[in-house]
Amino acid sequence: MKRFLVTCSHPRSEHAAAFLSAACGAGYKPSGVLIVNPFAPSQVRMVLRRWGRDALLERAQRLFAGRLGGSKKPAGRGAGVRRWIAEKGQPFSANVVGICRRHRIPFRLVADLNGHSALRFAGGGFDFAVYLGGGILRRDFLRAVSGPVLNAHDGPLPAIRGVSALEWALFLGIEPEITLHRIDAGIDTGGVYLRRRLVREDADDLDDLRVSAIGTALDLLWEGLERAWVGDLHPLDIAQAEDSGLQYFGMHAYLAEVLTWRLQSSLYRHPMRAIGEPSTSSARAESREIDAEPTS
Amino acid sequence: MSPILEANLLVEPDPQVNRRVQSGLDAVLSRQDAHTGFIHGMGFQGKDHAPTHTIAYTLQGLLEAREHLGEGGARYGSAAERGLARLFQIAEVRKTLPGALSAGWTQDRRFACVTGNCQVALCFLALWQRNGDPRYLNAACRLPMWVSRRQRVSGAVAGSVPLWGQYMGFRWPNWAVKYFLDLTGELRHGLITLAKVS
User: Fold this and answer.
1) pLDDT in tens, A26-83
2) Is B195 within 8 Å of A258 when comparing Cβ atoms?
3) Cα separation, A119 vs A129, whole angstroms
4) How far apart are CA A44 and CA A159, in angstroms?
5) The whole model's pTM is what?
6) How many residue pairs bridge chain A and chain B with CB atoms within 8 Å of each other?
7) Neighbouring-strand partners of residue B107
8) Closest CA relative to residue A268, chosen from B135, B195, B131
9) Which of A1, A19, A77, B127 has the highest count of CB atoms within 10 angstroms of its CB?
10) What is the distance between the alpha carbons of residues A283 and A285, in angstroms, rounded to a whole number?
């Protein structure tokens, strides 16, 4: 039996809660959960400094609405989590603390995953960790966990590192995929364990793709957990040198608008189809167009 | 020096003018830190503690020199790109640029230079137009949002934020608005082109 740690970005993280429920239901009970408290003084200071007062108020509003998040999340992700947990046959609850209490999993609310309290907890002899949010992990945290820290990245590595990787992959015309990798001191520069092309068959817009992305990311984390549990998780032969990829940052709303326009246009679909699998949704769309043609 | 090159191209090009401008630009490059890419003396009176405004002037001049000199100006463009790559990271992580930077790109965050933010964003746009890297376009989209939130109802844009900052303190320079308008116009043009191409 392995001891593993789970991190999550806040007490109502939907995907972390779903993963924990599914893991406990399948007998992979975590030995510890680290939850970042979004209203710890240092978190409040960070939000105020980076995004201003409005972002803090938005956080508070979402907490009271029961949908707290670190950033403004698209609606699609929540739907993807619900679909995934339904497939696992578990009831959905976004209450991470409640799940920990119900399954008697030791947990700790911390201000920062790299702080003293979190480091002491992470140094509790875990074989590996599953990262489900909580901010950038520093060297001290990675040293404290004796095994690998697994993360699902929503873009192809090493080509696209950083934030909004799904959106950037689509923007650049690269086939989107989810990558399970080991977190190291760089940004998405650790060894890649698993990769899976995103299923785009039923995706008509960006929100649909996000639903598909979160489900695939949870699937990969699940497979990583199962393999790490039996000691059968090995890195793929993918060069992850520092200069083999570029780091991207959050996509600005203007570019996201251009991307949405591209996704909706027929011009966009053709090159993507040529790169990936034959798209049944495009075929369906084309057949609908043919059906709509007036017959003489 | 870049306008001299441009003027020289408009009239009968004099090779001696190009040579002299290049020797001046080489003197600028000789001050570049090989490790960090920071160019010493970018500030007023050749100081290292440089407001974002004069840093942007230096980098813009180097970028434009490359355009005018062609193959012979590649090294100036590379020097500017090193600096802009560093500023791009700061802009994306902090969502705005600091008021001044000094050796090793040490940030002075006590104030922000509004003009400098617009000028650097214009350099990001120029770089995107040249190398097609959308990350620079993304950063160029981000900076004017910050500036527009600080524009007065009259349209004026302050020299510094807060108003008592080191660059044009308690003043609303006309060139701050000029660069802001240049940026929004260029950005609009760039995004429309991008949408049309795609």
Assistant:
1) 999 999 999 998 888 888 887 787 777 777 787 777 666 655 444 444 455 678 899 8
2) yes
3) 13
4) 33
5) 0.84
6) 38
7) B101
8) B195
9) A19
10) 5
Pairwise CB contact (< 8 Å): B195 & A172: no
Strand order across the beta sheet in which B50-51 lies: B50-51, B100-102, B106-108
d(CA A151, CA B95): 26
Kindly report the nearest CA distance between residue A150 and chain B, in angstroms: 24
Sign of dihedral through CA atoms B137, B71, B182, B21?
positive
Closest CA to B184 of B149, B153, B140: B140
Q: Which two tokens stand for residue A213?
A: 């992305």
The amino acid at residue B4 is I
| Matching residue, tokens 């009259």 | B154
DSSP code string of A159-172: TEEESSHHHHHHHT
Nearest CA in chain B to A258: B195
Distance CA A262, CA A180 (A): 28
pLDDT one-digit tens code per residue, A149-191: 999 999 998 899 999 999 999 899 888 899 999 999 889 999 9
Q: Which amino acid is residue A251, in one-letter code?
A: M
Tell me the three state secondary structure of residue A86: helix
Write the ipTM. 0.88
